[in-house]
Amino acid sequence: MENWSLFSLCVLLGLTSRWAVSFHSYSGAGKPPMFGDYEAQRHWQEVTYNLPVHEWYFNTTNNDLNYWGLDYPPLTAYHSLVCAYVAKLLNPEWVELHASRGYESHSHKLFMRATVLFTDILIYIPAVLLYCFYFCDGFSKQKVATALCILLYPGLILIDYGHFQYNSVSLGLALWGILGLGLGWDLFGSLAFTLALNYKQMELYHSLPFFCYLLGKCIKQGLIGRGFFQLAKISLTVLVTFALCWMPFLSDPKQPLQVLHRLFPFGRGLFEDKVANTWCSLNVLIKIKTLLSRETQLFLSFALTLLFILPSSLKLLSKPNLWQFKLALVNSSLAFFLFSFQVHEKSILLAFWFSLVAMAALSFTSVWLEPPAKFPDLFPVLVSILSFLHFLGFIIYFNLVQLMEPQRKKSQKKTN
Amino acid sequence: TVMAAPMTNDQSWFYALALGVSFLKCLLINAYHSTDFEVHRNWLALTHSLPVSQWYYEATSEWTLDYPPLFAWFEYGLSHIACFFDKEMLVVPNLNYASPATVLFQRLSVIVADVVFFYAVKECCKCLREDKGKDLLGKPSFILTGLLLWNFGLLIVDHIHFQYNGFLFGVLLLSIARHCQNRHFEGAFLFSVLLNLKHIYLYIAPAYGIYLLRCFCFTQSNAVLVTLGTIVLSTFAVSFGPFIGQLPQVLSRLFPFKRGLCHAYWAPNIWALYNIADKAFSILGVKFRLLDINKLPKASMTGGLVQEFQHSVLPSVSPLATLVCTLLSILPALFKIWHRPNGARGFLRCLVICALGSFMFGWHVHEKAILMAILPLSLLAVDSRKDAGIFLMLSVTGHYSLFPLLFTTQELPIKIFLMLLFTIFSLASLKTLFRKGGALLNPLEVTYLLGLIPLELICEFVYPLTVWQKTFPFLPLMLTSVYCALGVTYAFIRLYNSLLTCSDTTKKTKMQ
């Protein structure tokens, strides 16, 4: 079968599964007073549409930050604003200030799901197709297989179309960034990644590899001469993009500080809920959350993240090619996930998927059996610990791969 | 007897396709379901709660039991499993009861019953001639599996609209496969079972009857005729036995001729074209003063569930007339098969023609019945170029005509994505299979099929925004039905053409 028909079948399968998942419930459905992430996104549309820019990140009478205050960078806010304009056209009740809290209806759900699908088709799916087409090694069948695997990745589908989020935007923009770097369009790649960073601060997980790759490339071209000019151009692109995104917030020095305060809530503690990273798993044995002071926790997580990310970044700096870049992305995001502060379980979208058998068995038992009364959280904790062990294994393995660099490797790995 | 070369050992692709489509069906559990859902819930309730003597008399709900007894027994069996999900669904007065457990159970029952369909498809693949050394995507068995397991019509009718067609078509395809494998007694038995599960398969009974009589009863000994007769009669006896006392009541439920010529949404058959012609003539006649508007009987065709039809200009059509037309339309095919049977392939072609003929001329035909022609045609499509071309025309048109069944906004993306998925798959795979020998579809056919895109845009997106939506709400349905009727009629003519012109059995027999 021809390539175009195979690719379109993959895309259609991906789209069908996405929309079919969206039939089901979303996070916080029918659960007042707080509801869930779906209500958070709706609330942001309400806030950005009705309030002036300088009030978006502040606690005012009209904007209660305790009720799903904005905690993503400005690009998310602009996206919500655009969606709010569309919502206002369709049904003003959806974004009425205060009155629309907890609004739930079938047509509203359709609208929200449609916004996710729209951005997915616009940003994420073309990036995946271009990536598989240009950057996969192997025969066309292998490229199609890669595209199918990426497009059917359940984690992204379930979180974006089930739970409700817009991860496909930030991941898609990051993927455009990778594409740009791969095609040699460094400026375009930097621009795309900066936009991704300004959409979700989680993309910081990928920032070090981008930085090291570009820096290494410039150094290779000679710091006096071409390399320097390239570095200057890239830095300028990044700075201008940041400035454009943050422009409404630059008028008053208090503004960017408050935004940063919302983006990086160090007050929330080392971790919340059950996350498959080191701190949560360690907490089962040693109660570090209560034992150590918050400053020590911050320092520890910073130090360990840096420790685990250093080898990979240094290697990339010394040898800036695409294969190293892809590996570094994996290692960096795994390191951040495992060791950093305030990680959410959804951040794992940035790293890999794990062995099915153990997971399936654990899921099965957690559905059908009742946990013992003494340990009501037994099953979620077990899931987190099992996942953590997998991720630890992955980071060790991929660091080894990147540092040892065996000959003639063909990679089909997902990098987002 | 040509038995196909044995299948290659690596069968994992079949299970991948089967599992994949099953997972998709699970995702569709929460989708819109039509009144057919309540129909089946009602049947679960009445077979569970009432004694056998009451099954065909029960009329608390408007959805009375109108399938033959074996299906009622099937529902009875299901009802025993339903107890574990939600006992309330088995209470007859609980009309329109649709708790989450009920929906889950009913949807799962359709998904599980599809196992019969999977098995039948596997058996049909054994009847194909395999070309060794072809890569997977070009193998006829792979293409056939994709065309059947992922059939768009079956997916949306069974797993969204809600019916048990997968299970029933599984029995039909298994019966066909058995005939291809020369296990005729099993084939005949399976078909009798099928008739007792859903009597709509009477549409294709003539093909079975003529084929079996012709090939076996006169060429071989009388013992064969007797055995066949015994099999068929005993199946009917087992099925109708408990109801022998209430036979007239059962028959009146099974064949309710009080309904109108056309369903509320016209199936894309001859009568749709007939209705449109009648309307056109009456309008033109009045315009050109050939007819007096006051003397014309009021033609009411649109609106409501079931309507008595009165045509204005052309003569009104009665059930007897449709029966005569149907018989006339399939008689040449039956005669051809009697005269010169072409083995299993000829039988299959005759079967498709019978199904399509009954669809075209039948009384109160439901548009879902087009599947009875499309699914068996898939078997022919992977074998010959001409049939592949006819299949593409019929399947795309027929599947598009099912669009009005899903009219909710939430299901709109799903039906478009799935339709595109199936159409692209069938086009691309059949094109690859018959690479040599030019295009499968001529430019006129391609134009017609492409015309479905603007038709969909107009009917689904543009028309609802215009003023006419309130005054003529059925216009898009009428347009769809008439446009598709053209395609279906064309496919019917081409099928007949291929049956009447294909004369020899020696060249290229792939199925014997």
TrEMBL record, chain A:
Pathway: Protein modification; protein glycosylation
Membrane-related topology note: Multi-pass membrane protein
GO cellular component, one term: endoplasmic reticulum membrane
Gene Ontology molecular function, alphabetical: dolichyl pyrophosphate Man9GlcNAc2 alpha-1,3-glucosyltransferase activity
Main location: endoplasmic reticulum
Alphabetically ordered keywords of this record: Endoplasmic reticulum, Glycosyltransferase, Membrane, Signal, Transferase, Transmembrane, Transmembrane helix
Reactions the enzyme catalyzes: an alpha-D-Man-(1->2)-alpha-D-Man-(1->2)-alpha-D-Man-(1->3)-[alpha-D-Man-(1->2)-alpha-D-Man-(1->3)-[alpha-D-Man-(1->2)-alpha-D-Man-(1->6)]-alpha-D-Man-(1->6)]-beta-D-Man-(1->4)-beta-D-GlcNAc-(1->4)-alpha-D-GlcNAc-diphospho-di-trans,poly-cis-dolichol + a di-trans,poly-cis-dolichyl beta-D-glucosyl phosphate = an alpha-D-Glc-(1->3)-alpha-D-Man-(1->2)-alpha-D-Man-(1->2)-alpha-D-Man-(1->3)-[alpha-D-Man-(1->2)-alpha-D-Man-(1->3)-[alpha-D-Man-(1->2)-alpha-D-Man-(1->6)]-alpha-D-Man-(1->6)]-beta-D-Man-(1->4)-beta-D-GlcNAc-(1->4)-alpha-D-GlcNAc-diphospho-di-trans,poly-cis-dolichol + a di-trans,poly-cis-dolichyl phosphate + H(+)
Cell compartment(s), UniProt: Endoplasmic reticulum membrane
Annotated family: Belongs to the ALG6/ALG8 glucosyltransferase family.
Function in brief: Dolichyl pyrophosphate Man9GlcNAc2 alpha-1,3-glucosyltransferase that operates in the biosynthetic pathway of dolichol-linked oligosaccharides, the glycan precursors employed in protein asparagine (N)-glycosylation. The assembly of dolichol-linked oligosaccharides begins on the cytosolic side of the endoplasmic reticulum membrane and finishes in its lumen. The sequential addition of sugars to dolichol pyrophosphate produces dolichol-linked oligosaccharides containing fourteen sugars, including two GlcNAcs, nine mannoses and three glucoses.
Protein name as annotated: Alpha-1,3-glucosyltransferase
From TrEMBL, chain B:
Transmembrane intervals: 12-33, 97-121, 142-162, 200-217, 224-244, 313-334, 346-363, 414-434, 446-466, 472-493
InterPro entries membership: Glyco_trans_ALG6/ALG8
Keyword Transmembrane (UniProt): yes
Record-given protein name: Alpha-1,3-glucosyltransferase
EC number(s) given by UniProt: 2.4.1.-
GO MF, any single term: dolichyl pyrophosphate Glc1Man9GlcNAc2 alpha-1,3-glucosyltransferase activity
Domain of life: Eukaryota
Family: Belongs to the ALG6/ALG8 glucosyltransferase family.
Membrane-topology descriptor: Multi-pass membrane protein
Any one annotated GO CC term: endoplasmic reticulum membrane
Keyword Glycosyltransferase assigned: yes
Keywords (A to Z) from UniProt: Endoplasmic reticulum, Glycosyltransferase, Membrane, Transferase, Transmembrane, Transmembrane helix
Compartment(s): Endoplasmic reticulum membrane
Gene Ontology BP term (one): protein N-linked glycosylation
Pathway named in the protein's UniProt entry: Protein modification; protein glycosylation
Main EC class the enzyme belongs to: transferase
